[in-house]
Amino acid sequence: MKTLIICDSKHRGNTRKIADVMAEALGATIVGSDKVQAGDLGQYDLVGFGSGIYMGKHDQNLLSLVDKLPFGSGKKVFLFSSSLKGLVQMDKNHKALKDKLRAKDYDVIGNFSCLGSATFGPLKWLGGINKNHPDAEELDLARMFAEGVGSGL
Ligand SMILES: Cc1cc2nc3c(=O)[nH]c(=O)nc-3n(C[C@H](O)[C@H](O)[C@H](O)COP(=O)(O)O)c2cc1C
Hints:
Layout: E1 3-8, H1 14-26, E2 29-31, E3 46-54, E4 57-58, H2 60-68, E5 75-83, H3 90-103, E6 106-115, H4 136-151
Parallel strand pairs: 1-2, 1-3, 3-5, 5-6
Antiparallel strand pairs: 3-4
This protein binds flavin mononucleotide.
């Protein structure tokens, strides 16, 4: 099974930590959305899309990439993220990317999210929040999630 993970992690590298453990579990290649050409996904059996959540959505570059992709013909994909609220707001935070992918006939087979540290805006002066997240337990969950989506093929 050939897997590609497309990950943008621009704030603190939190989502990249998740991508790293998922890639290890799946034997996947990780790339930033700026390195993906529209036709690249054809050679992969499974594609993961992940980023931090910014203003309630995945990274705008990831969303824009999906606009450029060809129709998926049922290609299996999974979504992941890190955010201030993690799993609690996953459905809401993943909706924009999920809807775009589904509209292009990609089959979203799984979603993963966990807490991510943040130091933007006034949080910087407070020393940040969600310090040390994702933590070891969350990365273990990410690994198990990846094994699950990988074995579902
Ligand atoms: C500009 C900005 C906007 C953010 N907006 C949200 C948001 O709307 N909801 C949320 O839960 N987290 C929000 N966050 C927190 C990030 O999702 C969180 O820090 C995430 O772990 C960052 O991932 P990254 O290090 O991979 O970029 C925001 C962070 C930044 C810098």
